[in-house]
UniProtKB/TrEMBL annotation:
Domain N-acetyltransferase: 20-166
Species annotation: Pelagibaculum spongiae
PROSITE patterns: GNAT
One Gene Ontology MF term: protein-N-terminal-alanine acetyltransferase activity
Pfam families in the record: Acetyltransf_3
Protein's name in the database: N-acetyltransferase domain-containing protein
Gene Ontology cellular component terms for the protein in this record: cytoplasm
TM helices/strands, residue ranges: none
Record lineage: Bacteria, Pseudomonadati, Pseudomonadota, Gammaproteobacteria, Oceanospirillales
């Protein structure tokens, strides 16, 4: 179930055939991605990525998570995910990462906008949350650009390289998203 973002960007469900390509992308960008993502150091070999993909597929079948590859001009450049999907309370969390070479082109802003729209329109979510390290300015630029509201700081929320770091918790309600979508800059982005 691919999700088209625009003529150059597409979101595609993760499958076992992607494991080697995905591992190579992470391995090449290990230092860059590892600044913000604790799991990068756990992917030491392609088999670690295969285990992640297998678990990801199981969670997608269970309906709790949805990991999507971000393809730019047909090439994998990152991932965007819907996590902790709660159909009873109509809420989920979005996570994302992008290779260093693909940064600064609006790829992730547009991809996150598409997956947030998918969560609200197709999955009937009422609330979407994005949580990121307080020093992760690239991620904060995305949530601000998309109109998310800073709801608070989660103190010592993640252990990254042996240090506890705080996270900012950003939220968006379906009613807010629907109002934002009519703005010209949001329409062009999604």
């Amino acid at each position: 179930m691919p999700i088209p973002v625009n003529k150059d960007i597409q979101l595609e469900a993760l499958c076992s055939a992607h494991a080697e390509q995905l591992f190579a992308l992470v391995d090449d960008d290990r230092l860059f991605l590892g600044q913000w993502l604790s799991w990068v150091s756990q992917w030491e070999a392609v088999d670690d990525c295969r285990a992640f993909v297998k678990n990801s597929i199981r969670k997608m079948v269970d309906g709790t998570d949805m990991d999507l590859l971000v393809l730019h001009q047909g090439k994998i450049v990152g991932m965007v995910s819907l996590n902790l999907i709660d159909a009873n309370h109509h809420r989920c969390q979005v996570g994302y990462w992008l290779s260093q070479q693909a940064n600064g082109k609006g790829i992730m802003s547009q991809s996150v906008a598409a997956v947030v729209d998918y969560a609200f329109e197709k999955l009937q979510m009422n609330r979407v949350v994005i949580c990121s390290g307080v020093d992760n300015s690239p991620s904060q630029k995305i949530v601000k650009r998309l109109g998310f509201t800073l709801e608070g700081v989660l103190r010592q929320h993640e252990c990254l390289h042996g240090q506890y770091i705080d996270h900012q918790n950003w939220g968006m309600l379906k009613s807010e998203w629907q109002k934002l979508k009519v703005k010209p800059e949001m329409s062009e982005m999604a």
